[in-house]
């Protein structure tokens, strides 16, 4: 199987396969029509493949890169058969993802450090941000880590309440203030509490407003600046949560947030309910930000560490 050796447990792999089923079925339905009656990869097949990748939400720029890589292989081997196209796609897309994602991680882990590892979570409302935070807290706690949550999305009472529900469900402490409080103040209190409790991981929720980018940028900058007063190099990770089911809209959100703040990793959620799984490939490539986690179901175990080999294997198997 080469690069595509099995890394995940059978249970996790089954969950990933199931989560990507709609995307895979849609993609291969289109691909089978494109190569029907064709024995070798020619210009017509490549043109059709280009259209399929774009309509599978891989994105135009990333699609052109993939097509270019395949054209180079066709040029070397004039009689490249359509039967080999699936394997070639797997190899080239895994290669493309390798430029941004390490791909070896399979477990939820953090770097070893004396101070708390601080994750600041950003993303618009409705993408599954709070759920992702709750599931992350669960996975880190399962690894034996002490986790503290911070409810710094103070613009919506529902956001604070939802995070409290997750904190209770997972059994981790939460630091919160009343609705309308200063988000930076909440972040400051959360980190102070985490240091006092010798916490390993701090996960800070932030407001998800995009209607005014200047305000968003100023707010996130202030939150980060205040964090550094407690933990010098915090945040260690700025995690952008995107809803994979929104396809091209997720690209736009990534564009807005990467312009507003320094995003260091991505979580792509709700892949199980959509045929737009190709968005993971395009967003990772276009923004050169690694995808760290993917959501492939509603269960608490259905947030997975993104592994490019397992993802491509599930998508193209």
UniProtKB/TrEMBL annotation:
Broad EC category: hydrolase
EC number annotated for this UniProt entry: 3.6.5.4
Domain SRP54-type proteins GTP-binding: 290-303
Record's bilayer topology term: Peripheral membrane protein
PROSITE patterns membership: SRP54 (PS00300)
Binding site for GTP: 123-130, 205-209, 269-272
Gene Ontology process terms (BP): SRP-dependent cotranslational protein targeting to membrane
Compartments, as annotated in UniProt: Cell membrane; Cytoplasm
Reactions listed under catalytic activity: GTP + H2O = GDP + phosphate + H(+)
Function: Involved in targeting and insertion of nascent membrane proteins into the cytoplasmic membrane. Acts as a receptor for the complex formed by the signal recognition particle (SRP) and the ribosome-nascent chain (RNC).
Family: Belongs to the GTP-binding SRP family. FtsY subfamily.
Protein name (database record): Signal recognition particle receptor FtsY
């Amino acid at each position: 199987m080469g690069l595509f050796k099995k890394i995940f447990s059978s249970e996790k792999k089954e969950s990933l396969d199931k989560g990507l089923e709609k995307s895979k079925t849609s993609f291969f339905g289109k691909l089978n029509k494109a190569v029907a009656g064709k024995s070798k990869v020619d210009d017509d097949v490549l043109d059709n493949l280009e259209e399929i990748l774009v309509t599978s939400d891989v994105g135009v720029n990333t699609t052109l890169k993939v097509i270019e890589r395949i054209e180079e292989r066709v040029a070397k081997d004039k009689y490249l058969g359509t039967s080999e196209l699936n394997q070639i796609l797997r190899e080239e897309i895994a290669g493309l993802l390798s430029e941004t994602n390490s791909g070896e991680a399979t477990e939820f882990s953090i770097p070893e450090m004396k101070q708390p590892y601080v994750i600041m979570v950003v993303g618009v409302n409705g993408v599954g941000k709070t759920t992702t935070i709750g599931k992350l807290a669960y996975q880190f706690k399962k690894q034996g880590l002490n986790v503290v949550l911070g409810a710094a999305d103070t613009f919506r009472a529902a956001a604070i309440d939802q995070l409290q529900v997750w904190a209770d469900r997972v059994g981790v402490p939460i630091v919160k203030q009343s609705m309308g409080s200063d988000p930076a103040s909440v972040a400051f209190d959360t980190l102070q509490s985490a240091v006092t409790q010798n916490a390993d991981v701090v996960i800070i929720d932030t407001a998800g407003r995009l209607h005014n980018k200047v305000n968003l940028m100023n707010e996130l900058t202030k939150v980060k600046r205040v964090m550094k007063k407690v933990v010098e190099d915090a945040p260690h990770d700025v995690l952008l949560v995107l809803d994979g089911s929104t396809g091209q809209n997720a690209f736009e959100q990534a564009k807005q947030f990467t312009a507003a703040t320094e995003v260091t990793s991505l979580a792509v959620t709700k892949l199980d309910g959509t045929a737009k799984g190709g968005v993971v490939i395009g967003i990772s490539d276009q923004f050169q930000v690694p995808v760290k986690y993917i959501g492939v179901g509603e269960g608490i175990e259905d947030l997975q560490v993104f592994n490019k080999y397992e993802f491509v294997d599930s998508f193209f198997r």
